[in-house]
Amino acid sequence: ETVLTQLPDTLSLSPGERATLSCRASQSVSSSNLAWYQQRPGQAPRLLIHSGSTRAADIPDRFSGSGSGTDFTLTISRLEPEDFAVYYCQQSGLSSKFTFGPGTKVEMK
Amino acid sequence: QITLKESGPALVKPTQTLTLTCTFSGFSLRTSGVGVGWIRQPPGKAPEWLALIYWSDDKLYSPSLKARLTITKDTSKNQVVLTMTNMDPLDTSTYYCARAPEYNYACFDYWGPGTLVTVSS
Q: Checking phi first, is residue B20 left (phi over 0); if not, alpha (psi -120 to 50) or beta?
């Protein structure tokens, strides 16, 4: 099973700042099978990025995804108040099993 | 407009079987490539994928829970049902259903609001 590690656990930033979130896989993941989600308190996860770098429908262009192999990054170019939330990466690997990372919380400084 | 909604009991006793229904609209499980999955999330923890059923009736299960899970679909009713046997207090979670889209079966693009299931005697 592919294990995902996310760093940091918590990111303390101010509105307008840039956020860089890391997702590392225990074995190589096809970028086609790497997604990022945002979860606000009391809500379901929301798909932000699929295929490693493709924004989902209606996702603002301040969100971008990059990476390959075992290292992937979600970047939020300028934080808006509504971006303070928990972010999860997720991969689909061998036999199409799905695993999620433990999450990074982006909190307001 | 695509929507999904989970329904089922809020409280189950240990050893009982949980049955959850996902009722969806705005897409069809007759469409090639589409799937509906179940994901759960214990309070304060990360999501955990449970099962997925495709338009073709192919089914995938989490290896660690496979023995306890069954996923089925009723295409005419736009419903997907998940059963989980031998429930334990550690299974207390919010259970979500979500769509795996035809453009990328490796992610979930629309999610239901979730239903909290508590396992307690």
A: beta
Whole-angstrom distance, CA of residue A20 vs CA of residue A11: 9
Please count the residues of chain B: 121
- Joined tokens for residue A43: 């809500």
Query: Do A77 and A66 form a contact (C-beta atoms < 8 A)?
Result: no
- B2: contact with A, CB 8 A cutoff: no
Question: Cβ(B54)–Cβ(B34) under 8 Å?
Answer: yes
Whether A96 has a pLDDT exceeding 80, the answer reads no
The alpha carbons of chain B give a radius of gyration, in whole angstroms, of 14
Closest chain A CA to residue B43: A42
- Given A47, A54, A99, which is nearest B49 (Cβ)? A99
**Residue B114: which of A44, A90, A97 has the nearest Cβ?**
A44
The C-alpha atoms of residue A33 and residue A48 are separated, in whole angstroms, by: 14
| Rounded CA separation B79/A66 (Å) | 35
Mean pLDDT of A70-75: 98
Report how far Cα B54 is from the mean position of its chain's Cα atoms: 12
CB B11 within 8 A of CB B121: no
- So what's the pLDDT on residue A54? 97
CA angle A98/A90/A96 to nearest 5° reads 25
Return the SS3 of A95. Answer: helix
Q: Do B109 and A56 touch (CB under 8 A)?
A: yes
Q: pLDDT, tens digit, for every residue of B62-103?
A: 999 999 999 999 999 999 999 999 999 999 999 999 999 988
- For residue B96, which residues of chain A lie inside 8 Å, CB to CB? 44-45
